[in-house]
Predict the structure.
Amino acid sequence: MSDLTLNNGVTIPQLGFGVFQVPPEETQRIVEDALEAGYRHIDTAAAYRNEAGVGAAIAASGIPREELFITTKLRNGEQGNAAEAFEDSRKALGIDVVDLYLIHWPVPSQGLFTDAWKSMEKLQAAGQIRAIGVSNFLADHLDTLLAATETVPAVNQIELHPSFQQAELAAKSRSHGIEVEAYSPLGQGGDLNGNAVTAVAAAHNATTAQVVLAWHLAAGTIVIPKSADSTRMRENLAAAAITLTAAELDSITALESGARVGGDPAVAAWTQL
Ligand code: NDP
């Protein structure tokens, strides 16, 4: 599995494992299965309420800490309290240093993400976080952050899948040296049934999930598919071995339909998250 190098030199496995909607009581087992399958990059969030399960799986795995890449995210309701919120996440995960810490949503109506970022810069300077980034930041949120702070985000984790690609936002992020990380990369399963992906999958004797993930990887995007099933975990990981032709990549890119599966960051304001 290949790594990408972030703008501060930290490396990240390009294909990781997400745990949104993984119930807390099942998280340890599911993350242990993912680690056993070969994933070394886990994406969680304080809002998912399953950081402790991720931490228990890390501890039980016996895998050296430096071989793992762990991302978590600042709750929307804690943007004014980022240092304390980070400490809660770090303790729940049971690790000394978090590899990547993200502002989960901009929540522009709060006007707090720049303050949160400055706290995160201090935590990074103190060695508690290796890289800091954002999630769900639209162009204007990036512009505000870049104008007001010192550190360019290492990543922008955004909803990105064949039917909702946010191509302009991805290009803008990359133009600033910000890696694009695709969340809901399979469209939460909704992008796996169309004729175009089915045809490409048949040509490669692969599954539709594998060709969608191969399409992301070919674009240089970081991907974090979620699966509770160990067979599908392995299937998704094996996408890294699939190389699509330019015509096949184009046929998947043509699936853009502008349909989100998640929230709109311009207005999303779930401060309970
Ligand atoms: P995904 O696009 O990863 O889709 C997950 C769904 O697809 C599940 O229903 C899963 O079912 C199914 N699936 C997975 N693999 C396969 C396969 N090979 N064949 C068929 N079905 C499959 O959606 P997510 O929303 O979970 O996104 C992934 C990660 O992105 C999250 O877990 C989270 O870490 C992150 N995320 C971040 C957000 C943010 O705001 N920053 C928002 C949303 C997600 P099953 O489990 O039964 O296999």
